[in-house]
Amino acid sequence: MLKLVHVLSVAAVALSLATAALVAEGTHSAGSGQAEQPRVTFLRDVAPILNKVGCTAGACHGAAKGKNGFKLSLRGYDPQFDYEALLYDLAGRRFNRADPGRSLMLAKPSQEVAHGGGRRFAKDSDYYKTIYNWIAQGVPYGDPAKETVAELRAEPKEIFMTRPGETASLKVVVRYQDDQTRDVTRETTIESNVPDVASVESDTSVIRGERVGEATLLVRYQGTFGAIPVTVLNPKPGFAWKPLPQFNYIDRLVDAKLERLKIQPSPVTDDVTFFRRLSLDLTGRLPSPESVRALLDDPTPSRVKRAKTIDKLIASPEYVDHWTVKWGDLLQSSRKYLGEKGAYEFQQWIRDAIASNRPYDKLVRELLTARGSSYDNPAANYFRVTREARPAMEKTTQVFLGVRMVCAQCHDHPFERWTQNQYYQMSAFFSAVGIRAGYEVGEEIVFDRRAEYEMKHPKDGRVMKPQFMLASSVAPVPDGPQRRDALAEWLTSKDNPFFARAIANRMWSYFVGKGIIDPVDDIRASNPPSNPALLEALTKDFVAHGFDLRSLMRTIVSSRAYQASIVTNEWNANDRDNFSHAIPRRLSAEELMDGVSSAAGARARFPEVPEDTAASQLVDPHIGREGFLDVFGRPPRESSCECERRSDFSLPQALNLVNGRTISDAVADPNGRVARLVLSGKSDAAVVDELYLAALSRPPTQEERQRGVTYLSNAAKGSRAQDLLWALLNSQAFLYIY
Question: Contact 510/524 with Cβ under 8 angstroms?
Fold first, then answer.
């Protein structure tokens, strides 16, 4: 019955097309004196109109289930589907070829008949006339080999405004596959990622600077994209660039942009503030009072001292603990997926890789090509988390390439070039991965299937062969089950434009609080780098040093940009994107817990692990669940997104600090720092100094010391010293990295 209906629909459309052709032929042969209308096709002329007026938007017919029984592809990503939907829906009754003006396709959007979407264009508009002529000419689809957009060019390539209130216009030209060009500015969608910096008048494509800052315009037309940076300068007079010392190429590239934007960077912070910042960023631990005193007593020049400190911290066991946590989060090392023994084995594999400074490309290749027992070859646990081809592909591209392919699962990516076909072609690299039970309890074996492993497209069931998302010089992809070996080679290649760039950007974010591309795992044209030259230089340096993560970290923390003070000046006070000054960052959950333990001289106690286990040494988030660590944003490792780790500050956190047992028990520990200081008989001034060094990693100021001594001397020293340490651990100076 369905086949008969379809046949009748096709017949009706064919008859209507024939009628339209005869009508059009009669009209032209009548010699009315009117100029012959130019040829109009769906691909080149009509589809862009449907996209521009919003018919294919997610709130209209582009919704997952369409609107009022009629569905188009989201943002027009599938023009063939849209054309057939228009042609065959309602047995072709959306068109009246004999009298195009009475077609529903014109009557509804022009509001001549009721339309839930309202009026999309007027009857006397150019859009109306274009669609009218298209219908009159027999609704031709067009030739994809000629009329598909090959290139989009937007001018100017950068918009630079000297003050808020200025305006600029964009011109967008596309080149088709047949090398014909067309000005499509009117039909192009232009959106600003920060509208309160740069707004867009949709009807005129005029860009207006609203306030001082930077924004990016996403230019989108028929599946092609472009990004235009917009800068609105501070019009305040009197700016004069004052050069600061440049420690390496990072500072040269940061300064080049700051000078252009009239932003004066802050100088470097003092030694003890730098020491605390560096220690927390590299090891997740506070410096000990003894190490702070040693730093202050060291007469060596500051830059030499800092370089020695960097090397010492990178070589410490605490460095391994800290970065094991980072990579455990990204790789989702958790007993939920791996079992208890599997989680411990995977954590140890990560620890060994970090301790040995395994080259990053080798580390990733080991993960992607892992086979065998999850106990004997712990890298195989990587596939036990995702278990299926599509989640494995999504995780791999997001973690190692910084690309969120998940948006292309149901349709072409709405903000990027990735297509639905590419989603399944990339997934096909993992379709042969099989997992079966092992010989020990909890053990699983990762293997390559030999049959029934093909990836099929959900729309039409066709087999999707593995294919790289970017053109590559790597040897052709094998069609057999070991196809992921080819993926690993391509993905970790120094020629891959995403691989090294993604980790360089991610590492930068760990040390300054924000990626050059941010979020770090959402790299796309509409989310461009704030400093492209800096990201490019970091990437090249990383590759040149053999994908050495420690070398990359050393370069970042040795820069003046990293070592800058949080104190701002009149020219950089509002800067949040260009690294002109340090921005306070809240300590992570593990850093807070270990910081409290270190300052109070009392170990935290966790179930199921030895008493001397630090928070940064826990194998997974199931230890100490729903306690202090979870309140302060420890990620559950349900996904690989950086967004899982929360760094906000909330009311439950404040209540936990003030009333919770974590801090109160630590400061009152009978074997803790306060008890030892009181029993040692040290002076009140020495006790105050020690507590400040332990909690804030700096000596107290003269005023702070005097107030502390006064407070201790007015009652029992033990309880007063506990109060002082409690107050320090609740202060912003302790809770944040400055």
Answer: no
In order, the DSSP letters of 476-544 are: PPPSSTTHHHHHHHHHT-TT-TTHHHHHHHHHHHHHHSS-SSSSTT--BTTB--SSHHHHHHHHHHHHH
Rounded CA-CA distance 40/53 in Å is: 18
36-53 residues labelled b (16+ CB within 10 A) or e (exposed): ebeebbbbbbbbbbbbbb
Whole-number pLDDT of residue 35: 52
| Spatial separation of the C-alpha atoms in residues 531 and 413, rounded to whole Å | 25
Tokens describing residue 569: 């000046």
- Partner residues linked to 447 by β-bridges: 434
**Amino acid residing at 532:** P
- Which pair of structure tokens corresponds to residue 501? 């760039």
Q: Are 575 and 581 in contact (CB under 8 A)?
A: yes
Exposure of 255 in the CB half-sphere (CA atoms within 13 A): 18
Task: Identify whether 519 is preceded by a cis peptide bond (ω within 30 of 0).
Answer: yes
481, 446 contact by CB (below 8 A): no
Distance of CA 294 to the CA centre of its chain: 40
- Burial label for 436, CB within 10 Å (0-12, 13-18, 19+), is exposed
What stretch of H or E contains 661? Answer: helix 661-667
* Confidence at residue 424, expressed as pLDDT on a 0 to 100 scale: 92
Strand-strand pairing, 585-586 and 149-155:
unpaired
Task: Please give the average per-residue pLDDT across 629-641, as a whole number.
Answer: 94
Read off the pLDDT of residues 168-207 as tens digits, 9 standing for 90 and up.
999 999 999 999 999 999 999 999 989 999 999 877 889 9
Which residue's entry shows tokens 């190692």?
400
Give 114-138 pLDDT, tens digit per residue: 888 888 888 899 999 999 999 999 9
Domains and CATH numbers, the chain: 2-142 (no CATH), 148-232 (2.60.40.1080), 320-491 (no CATH), 589-632+649-738 (no CATH)
Assess contact for 564 and 582: CB atoms under 8 A: yes
User: For residue 156, is the peptide bond before it cis, meaning its omega torsion is within 30 degrees of 0?
Assistant: yes
